[in-house]
Design a protein that fits this description.
By secondary structure, the protein is mainly alpha-helical. The protein is built from five helices and two strands; from the N terminus they run H-H-H-H-H-E-E. It has one domain (27-125). A two-stranded antiparallel ribbon has the order 1-2. The longest helix is centred in the middle third of the chain and has 26 residues, at 51-76.
């Protein structure tokens, strides 16, 4: 069960990437966008915002990277490999600039933990 829980985040991202690859694209920035979105969620919690605002901050930051990738690829005409390689670097660089390489572990409400660590019966469910 521990392996399934650990793999679930990667599996969710992999399902999304299958759709990108099937359509002939590639997105190298997925991990950086995940990291930046997670950081924005943690940052919101650290600064005292509620669960809804923290989740919205993470989603909006991911949306921001998606829009940036879309503009670079469809608007400007950059190849997806080059555009997403650039946003990968932007995302990683922003993470290091914000955190200075230090981990950020804010207190989160129990309801937030249930989203990723809940159970239906004995089966773990990452909502």
């Amino acid at each position: 069960m521990g392996v399934f829980r650990s793999f679930s985040l990667t599996a969710i991202m992999a399902i999304g990437m299958v759709m990108v690859i099937v359509t002939g694209g590639i997105d190298l920035s997925v991990g950086s966008v995940l990291g930046f979105s997670s950081l924005m969620t943690a940052f919101a919690f650290q600064h005292g915002f509620g669960m809804a605002i923290a989740i919205a901050a993470g989603l909006l930051s991911g949306l921001m990277f998606g829009v940036l990738n879309a503009v670079l690829i469809t608007g400007i005409g950059l190849p997806p490999f080059i555009a997403t390689l650039g946003t990968l670097s932007i995302g990683r660089g922003a993470i290091y600039m914000i955190t200075h390489g230090e981990p950020l572990t804010p207190d989160t409400p129990p309801a937030f933990a249930e989203l990723g660590q809940g159970y239906i019966g004995f089966v773990p469910v990452p909502w």
